[in-house]
Automatic annotation (TrEMBL):
Its main location: membrane. Gene3D superfamilies: Phosphorylase Kinase, domain 1, Transferase(Phosphotransferase) domain 1. GO terms for biological process: defense response to oomycetes. Pfam families: PK_Tyr_Ser-Thr (PF07714). The keyword Lyase does not apply. It is found in: Cell membrane. This is Protein kinase domain-containing protein. GO terms for molecular function: ATP binding; protein serine/threonine kinase activity. In the C-terminal section; belongs to the protein kinase superfamily. Ser/Thr protein kinase family. In the N-terminal section; belongs to the leguminous lectin family. Keywords: ATP-binding, Cell membrane, Glycoprotein, Kinase, Membrane, Nucleotide-binding, Receptor, Serine/threonine-protein kinase, Signal, Transferase, Transmembrane, Transmembrane helix. Residues 1-232, 313-575 form the Protein kinase domain. It comes from Aquilegia coerulea (Rocky mountain columbine).
Length: 696
């Protein structure tokens, strides 16, 4: 920061490097961060001014990339990292994860560098992938989508906004401006913002423009062509944002490209999924796969690509996409509606196809999504499932839940539990789902729930299974921790809390709902909570039972959780429900490991735990408790304590300092400096901090 200077970069005045304090002194930004205007008070600034802010941010990034002696990649471009002065002039800040390169270096090798989830370019999440300034271009593109819609682009139980408007451009472009609330006088500039955003957010880095080109387009010194659909991995390098742009950089060999053009401006009568454009080279493995499938999965019928084209009217109705998969609605010749899941080409798609086929083809239960067949063609890997007209459970819980009686929701919970019980105990291959959440439960025309998408496992050592924050059990975030079926029980417990509250557990601006339920239970105010939630009188006993079972399911220690079979019996009232213990309590074995040398004189890890809990009640304040160094015989240095404090400050969360030798988050023991540093390096600390109030 001391070597760069630009009107759109936060100015550094000086620093302090004393024994007891290290600090940087910056100019003060009276209007705070840009995200507060975009997300909380979007109509306070005219759209033309927002366009000017976007242009100035682009100028600041162009300076970092090309305007100073050494190329700087910011690596964390987002609205929260743009500050506004009293004149609403934007200043880019927070260079904590930025990378400095010599001007003649074209890329960096990616090892652990990460920005912010939902803003980072796709290549950042691929180990050893070359990182260039195009990562910043991608993040800037997502910020442009936010400026266009004057909203956060991160999906909150809705369609991802960039995907939504990009699809609208290909189908109903005239509706975009009205949908975004753009007035007639601003629509020309708004369309430029949309075009540039789509170019910047291209999946393939080489197709994205430079920030210099972006500035020229926003300044209207260059026209912009219609971009291809951005959120795919196989765009033609024949595309160019600028008519005069020549010599697009050579794409990295790890980025697959095709030889077809998919420009939205020239739609064809036939809509084909992008993974079909490039033929999947399965000749080497085709015979092996076919032999395996014919031997192990006799219950699945094989279909050809032509069959699927007929079933789907040439893949004309996509109903879902993401995660190397696209789902299309189709219909068998006898009229039965189906959902056809098409897997992307490449090793990841193949692995997902085989894993899902292995899991789904041998399962048959009324609460498990039924697989009808598969397609394994040179150009296609797909599975055919029954179609679920009501979509996923989260649509009901977070959206139109008032149209369903609470008693029916209780019945849905029982049926989900029976489906999970079948996976754990009713099938000859013990199966752990590992990603249970409302979105993993689909509803048919009778609101019968069907569990979808899981991996077949028994008792594993955790490496990198799919995890969803807010639903994954604590042990799933711990390296080398054994994961068993109790992980599914924990996730099922979080689903029950969401059914109870008919809301997301991590509702913005509200406390974590499971913790709130526990506090009401602990103070014997559970009936008051149930009344507060608006649950009808005739269902309140069931709601009380549900809340107590949920508290049992989310016990921090896996062995304290009931089996899913026991959960079914408790829900069906064939077993009584005893009062649950504190669910967010840390097992004593964890505390024993905090610092053996320091506590070996303490007789009693239990007494130490009581001390910690007295200082930091588990499940207490919804904030972080950071350790200090005043407890006698604790060998935690100031340096370590200060290091943890800095890590927490980088996440902008509120902290409470108490005289305890370790870090607690939401009542959970996280550990000391070494553990915190490891979690931060692995990107897991941010997940643990999810839902913690941020600093004003």
């Amino acid at each position: 920061m001391d070597r760069i200077s630009h009107t759109n970069l936060l100015k550094l005045y000086g620093f302090c490097f004393a024994d007891d304090i290290k600090a940087l002194v910056y100019e003060c930004m009276e209007n705070g961060s840009f995200d507060k205007i975009l997300y909380k008070n979007p109509n306070s600034v005219e759209w033309a001014k927002l366009y000017d802010i976007a242009l100035q941010i682009a100028r600041g990034l162009a300076y970092l990339h090309n305007g100073c002696g050494e190329q700087i990649i910011h690596h964390d471009v987002k609205a929260a990292n743009v500050l506004l002065d009293k004149s609403l002039c934007p200043k880019i800040t927070d260079f904590g994860v930025s990378k400095l390169m010599k001007s003649d270096v074209t890329h960096l090798t990616n090892t652990r560098t990460r920005g912010t989830d939902y803003y980072s370019a796709p290549e950042i999440h691929q180990p050893l992938y070359p990182i260039t300034c195009k990562c910043d271009v991608y993040s800037f593109g997502l910020m442009l989508f936010e400026i266009l819609g004057r909203r956060c682009h991160i999906p909150k139980n809705k369609i991802w906004f960039p995907h939504e408007v990009s699809q609208m451009l290909s189908k109903q472009p005239e509706t975009i401006m009205e949908y975004c609330g753009i007035m007639e006088k601003d629509r020309e500039k708004a369309m430029i913002v949309l075009m540039v955003a789509m170019w910047c957010a291209q999946y393939t880095p080489a197709i994205r423009p430079s920030m210099k080109d972006v500035v020229e387009v926003l300044e209207k010194e260059m026209s912009v062509t219609t971009p291809p659909y951005p959120f795919q991995s196989h765009n033609s390098l024949g595309h160019s944002m600028l008519p005069s742009l020549q010599g697009i950089p050579e794409v990295h060999p790890e980025v697959p490209v095709n030889d077809k053009s998919l420009a939205i401006s020239c739609p064809t009568p036939v809509v084909v999924p992008h993974m079909l454009i490039t033929a999947y080279r399965v000749e080497e493995n085709k015979q092996e796969l076919e032999e395996y499938i014919s031997k192990e999965h006799k219950g699945l019928k094989k279909y050809s690509l032509m069959d699927l084209q007929k079933f789907t009217s040439w893949f004309s109705n996509m109903i879902a996409c993401g995660g190397f998969r696209e789902v299309y609605k189709g219909r068998f010749p006898d009229g039965v509606e189906v959902a056809i899941k098409v897997f992307a080409d490449g090793d990841i798609g193949k692995e997902m196809f085989m894993s899902e086929m292995r899991a789904m083809s041998t399962l048959y239960h009324k609460n498990i999504l039924r697989a009808y067949g598969y397609c394994l063609d040179k150009k296609m890997m797909a599975l055919i499932y029954e179609y679920m007209p009501y979509g996923s459970l989260d649509n009901i819980l977070y959206g139109n839940h008032r149209g369903i009686e609470w008693g029916r929701l209780y019945g849905i919970v029982i049926e989900i539990a029976k489906g999970v019980s079948y996976l754990h105990e009713g099938h000859h291959h013990r199966t752990i789902h590992l990603d249970l959440k409302p979105r993993s439960v689909l509803l048919d025309e009778n609101l019968c729930p069907k569990i979808k998408t899981f991996d077949s496992m028994s008792h594993i050592t955790l490496t990198s299974p799919k995890r969803t924050r807010g639903y994954a059990a604590p042990e799933m975030w711990m390296s080398e921790s054994p994961v068993t079926s109790e992980a599914d029980v924990y996730s099922f417990g979080t689903i029950m809390f969401e059914v109870l509250g008919m809301r997301n557990n991590n509702q913005p601006g509200q406390r974590w709902f499971p913790q709130y339920v526990w506090e009401k239970f602990e103070t014997e105010d559970l009936e008051e909570l149930i009344e507060e939630l608006g649950i009808p009188w005739e269902n309140r006993e069931d709601a009380k039972r549900l809340s107590m079972i949920a508290l049992w399911c989310v016990q921090y220690t896996p062995r304290k959780r009931p089996s899913i079979g026991t959960v079914v019996k408790m829900l069906e009232k064939t077993l009584p429900v005893t009062p649950p213990p504190m669910p967010f309590q840390v097992s004593l074995s964890v505390v024993d490991e905090v610092d053996d040398d320091d506590v070996e004189e303490e007789e009693e890890s239990e007494s130490m735990l009581e001390l910690y809990e007295k200082k930091c009640p588990p499940g207490g304040e919804n904030s972080v408790i950071i350790y200090t160094t005043t407890i006698e015989r604790m060998k935690r240095s100031f340096k370590e304590s200060n290091y943890v404090r800095k890590i927490l400050q980088s996440h902008h969360i509120k902290m409470i300092e108490r005289d305890i030798p370790v870090l607690f988050v939401k009542g959970r023991l996280i550990g000391a400096a070494d553990e915190v540093q490891k979690l931060e390096a692995e990107g897991k600390l941010q997940v643990l901090l999810y839902g913690i109030p941020t600093e004003d």
